[in-house]
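Researcher: Let's do a round of design. I'm pasting the C-alpha cells now; please hold your answer until I've finished.
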C-alpha cells in the first residue's frame, strides 16, 4: 500500500506531517498521543481512515507481547476500582506499563452516557505509565471484538506490558473478552453465594481466577461463605485450563487489600500457561475464531445489502403473514435470491 496517498487528513496540530511511518515510530516509542490517534482511526466511519488504521495495525510487530487480562463481573461489582488499584500497584511496585480498555456495551445505543464511569480510575489516570481508553461497541465488521482486537495490538505496539479489558459480563462483550484475553478475572460480590445459580455457567467455565470484591468490614463473613461455596462449585466444574485448580480470592478494591496476593496468583498462572504452551494455543484458537467472526459479519453484510434479497424479504414477510408460505420455505426462497 502506498502510504503517501493518505497524506491529506494526517497533519498534526503543529502542521507537521504525520504520515504512518512517523506515526509508527512514535507509537513504538510509547507515545500515548500516537496510540490515541491510531485508536481514533480504527473507530472512524470514514473508509480512508479505516484503511489507514488497517495498515497501521498490520505493521505492528509486537502483537502478543503483553499479558492480556479480562476483568468481568456485574455492573457495580468494582471492576474499575479494582483495575485502578491493581494497575497502580503494577506501575509502582512492578515497573509495568498498563493499558486499560473499557468496553462500553451501551455506547452503541446511548451515545456513551456511562463512558465517564467506565473510565473513572482516579489513581491510575495520574500515572504516566498508564493509558485508559473506552472502547465503543461497533456495529460494523466484527463488532466489539474487532475494535478491541485492534486496540490490544496497538497498545502492545506502544509497549504496554499489561492490557486490562474491563467488560460487564453480559452479551456480546462477554464473548468478546473471552476471545481476546489470556486470563479472565471474574469479580463477584460477597453475598453472591445465595444466587450462584443465577451466575451463568458459561462464564464460570471461562474464568481463570475468581475474586470476591468488597470483602471488608461486615462483608467479610459473607465473603468467606461465598468463597467456600465457590471452591466446591469450581472443583466439579471444568475450567479453561485442564489440570489447573481455580483460585477464589478475597479482596477489597476500595481498601486495597488482597490486590498483591491476587497479582501473585495471576503472574504465577501466567508463567505456568506460558510454559505449558496453553497460551500460544489459546491465542491461535482466538485468531481462528476471529476469522470466523469476520466471515460471519461479511456474509451478513453482503446478504442484507443485496437488493434482490431485500426485495425478496419484503415480499416473503407479507406471504408468511398471510399464511401463503411457511417461514422455513420463505427463508429458503430468500436465500435463493442471494445465491443467484
Ligand atoms: N465497599 C466497597 N466498595 C467498593 C469496592 N470496590 C468498588 N467499590 C464501590 O462500588 C461502586 C462501583 O465501583 P466501580 O469500580 O465503578 O464498579 P464497576 O464494576 O466498574 O461498575 P460498571 O463499570 O458500572 O460495571 C463505587 O461506588 C465504588 O467506590 C470495595 O472493595 N469495597
Ligand atoms: Mg467500571
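Researcher: That's everything. Go ahead.
Model: Designed sequence:
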Amino acid at each position: 500500500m502506498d502510504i503517501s496517498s493518505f497524506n491529506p487528513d494526517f497533519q498534526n496540530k503543529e502542521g507537521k506531517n504525520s504520515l504512518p511511518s512517523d506515526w509508527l515510530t512514535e507509537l513504538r516509542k510509547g507515545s500515548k498521543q500516537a496510540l490515541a490517534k491510531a485508536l481514533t482511526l480504527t473507530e472512524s466511519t470514514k473508509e480512508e481512515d479505516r484503511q489507514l488504521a488497517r495498515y497501521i495495525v498490520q505493521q505492528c510487530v509486537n502483537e502478543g507481547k503483553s499479558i492480556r487480562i479480562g476483568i468481568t463481573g456485574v455492573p457495580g461489582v468494582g471492576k474499575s476500582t479494582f483495575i485502578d488499584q491493581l494497575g497502580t500497584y503494577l506501575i509502582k511496585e512492578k515497573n509495568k506499563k498498563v493499558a486499560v480498555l473499557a468496553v462500553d456495551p451501551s455506547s452503541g445505543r446511548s451515545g456513551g452516557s456511562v463512558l465517564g464511569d467506565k473510565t473513572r480510575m482516579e489513581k491510575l489516570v495520574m500515572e504516566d505509565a498508564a493509558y485508559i481508553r473506552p472502547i465503543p461497541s461497533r456495529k460494523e465488521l466484527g463488532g466489539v471484538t474487532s475494535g478491541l482486537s485492534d486496540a490490544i495490538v496497538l497498545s502492545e505496539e506502544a509497549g504496554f506490558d499489561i492490557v486490562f479489558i474491563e467488560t460487564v459480563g453480559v452479551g456480546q462483550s462477554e464473548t468478546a473478552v473471552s476471545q481476546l484475553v489470556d486470563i479472565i478475572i471474574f469479580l463477584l460480590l460477597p453475598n453472591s453465594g445465595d444466587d450462584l445459580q443465577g451466575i451463568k455457567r458459561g462464564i464460570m467455565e471461562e474464568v481463570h481466577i475468581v475474586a470476591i470484591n468488597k470483602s471488608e468490614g461486615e462483608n467479610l463473613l459473607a465473603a468467606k461463605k461465598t468463597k467456600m461455596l465457590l471452591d466446591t462449585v469450581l472443583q466439579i466444574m471444568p475450567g479453561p485450563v485442564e489440570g489447573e485448580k481455580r483460585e477464589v480470592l478475597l479482596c477489597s478494591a476500595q481498601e486495597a487489600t488482597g490486590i498483591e496476593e491476587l497479582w501473585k496468583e495471576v503472574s504465577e498462572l501466567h508463567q505456568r500457561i506460558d510454559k505449558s504452551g496453553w497460551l500460544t494455543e489459546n491465542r491461535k484458537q482466538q485468531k481462528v475464531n476471529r476469522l470466523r467472526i469476520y466471515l460471519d459479519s461479511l456474509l451478513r453484510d453482503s446478504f442484507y445489502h443485496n437488493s434482490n434479497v431485500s426485495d425478496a424479504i419484503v415480499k416473503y414477510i407479507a406471504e408468511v403473514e398471510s399464511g401463503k408460505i411457511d417461514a422455513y420455505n420463505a427463508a429458503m426462497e430468500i436465500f435463493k435470491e442471494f445465491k443467484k
